[in-house]
UniProtKB/TrEMBL annotation:
Organism of provenance: Rodentibacter genomosp. 1
Site (Essential for prephenate dehydratase activity): T278
Domain ACT: residue ranges: 299-376
Pathway(s) where this gene product acts: Amino-acid biosynthesis; L-phenylalanine biosynthesis; phenylpyruvate from prephenate: step 1/1; Metabolic intermediate biosynthesis; prephenate biosynthesis; prephenate from chorismate: step 1/1
Name of the protein this chain belongs to: Bifunctional chorismate mutase/prephenate dehydratase
UniProt EC number: 4.2.1.51, 5.4.99.5
Domain Prephenate dehydratase: start-end pairs: 105-285
Gene Ontology terms: biological process: chorismate metabolic process; L-phenylalanine biosynthetic process
Cited CDD domains: ACT_CM-PDT, PBP2_Ct-PDT_like
Molecular functions (GO terms): chorismate mutase activity; prephenate dehydratase activity
Cell compartments where the protein resides: Cytoplasm
Length: 385
């Protein structure tokens, strides 16, 4: 006899709750793992071990005839591995750096519901610290709030997989004494948000931040006679559309933020690129020490002589010491036409002897060299089968 739909749903709920219990148990085991690695000083990640684990799980499911696709199994367990790695990483960082007992004040662009706000909440949640939100009207104000002590850290977008580098943030990094102490990636899921019920054909004005407009350009071009209004942030756009309460206007932002302002999602998945991610950096007045067991990055600011091959000579230093460079970004130097400043991101800890030797050699090939920060990466790249 076939089960009723309500009975099937009850069974699913029971299974889901058992899964949650097992996930919680596995999560707690991450602390036992990191305590063991803390003694042996092993690196947090073991790519060969992770790859073997995924292969064994796929093989086990096949032997048991579980009828689960290998891609489905690997995608789930890659997320579980990511949680384990980040849990262990936070444990080591909290022990290495003195943690304040009071609330963490976090500065970010916009109001509640902006992508920067959601990323800030994600950062605070990972470190399991109570936090106070400090909304700002500009990227420059985020730096100012941290510099003058109104915020402990600032969370700023640095680059997006669709629109590329956030040049304004890069330019502000040229002139700051703050240190980078962290990074994280946050998924960007743009949608059309309206007040009440309306039809997409009625919309003639869109409000949002310039970066959001750029990332949704293909969708916007598909609309007819739509006027663009730029706002300080996507959260300002959502607040404005909510207060104006007109059927012909909409905000481009995220669904979770829209709910905070009583807006309804009219259309989702409107970004040019489906897998749309923004990488955020975390800045603080004081640098943090990073455990040598953690995957670490360092961001450098450098200028080179205006001679042929000078930049290549500088980059060869990293090859010599087998240091991987993950980012090279150039920006103009104000007041010096046709001269550029380079941002170099390397996968290295500045306290490692080889990194120190490389940086010392790099000085010979540069006019100016500054370490903007050494920080743990919270972007866990999955291993593949």
């Amino acid at each position: 006899m076939a089960l009723e739909l309500s009975e099937i749903r009850q069974l699913i709920t029971q299974i889901d709750r058992r899964l949650l219990k097992l996930l919680s148990e596995r999560h707690r085991l991450a602390f036992d793992v990191v305590r063991s690695k803390e003694i042996t000083q092993k690196a947090l990640r073991d790519a060969e071990r992770e790859q073997q684990l995924l292969q064994d799980l796929v093989q086990f499911a096949e032997n048991e005839n579980y009828q689960l696709e290998p891609q489905y199994i690997t995608s789930i367990f890659q997320k579980i591995i990511e949680d384990s790695v980040l849990t262990q990483q936070v444990y080591l960082q909290n022990k290495l750096n003195e943690q304040r007992s009071q609330n963490l004040h976090i500065a970010f662009l916009g109001k509640r519901g902006s992508y920067s706000n959601l990323a800030a909440r994600n950062y605070a949640g990972r470190y399991q610290k109570p936090f106070v939100e400090v909304g700002c009207q500009s990227f420059e104000q985020v730096f100012e709030k941290v510099k003058n002590g109104e915020a402990d850290v600032g969370v700023l977008p640095l680059e997006n997989t669709t629109s590329g580098a956030i040049n304004e943030v890069y330019d502000l990094l040229q002139h700051t004494d703050l240190s980078l102490v962290g990074e994280l990636a946050y998924p960007i899921k743009h949608c059309v948000l309206v007040n009440g019920t309306t039809d997409l054909s009625q919309i003639d004005t869109l409000y949002s931040h310039p970066q959001v407009i750029q990332q949704c350009s293909q969708f916007i071009h598909s609309l007819e006679r739509v006027h663009i209004e730029y706002c300080e942030s996507s959260s300002h756009a959502m607040q404005l559309v909510s207060s104006l309460d007109k059927p012909n206007i909409a905000a481009l932002g995220n669904e979770d933020g829209g709910k905070l302002y009583g807006l309804t999602m009219l259309k989702s998945n409107i970004a040019n690129q489906e897998n749309n991610l923004t990488r955020f950096i975390v800045v603080s007045r004081e640098p943090q020490e990073v455990s040598p067991q953690i995957h670490t990055k360092t961001l450098l600011l450098m200028t080179t002589p205006q001679q042929a091959g000078s930049l290549v000579d500088a980059l060869l230093v990293f090859k010599k010491y087998q240091i991987n460079m993950t980012k090279l970004e150039s920006r103009p130097i104000y007041g010096k036409p046709w001269e550029e400043m380079f941002y170099l991101e390397i996968e290295a800890n500045i306290h490692h002897p080889d990194t120190q030797k490389a940086l010392e050699e790099l000085k010979a090939y540069s006019h100016y060299l500054k370490i903007l920060g050494c920080y743990p990466s919270e972007i866990v790249k999955p291993v593949n089968l």
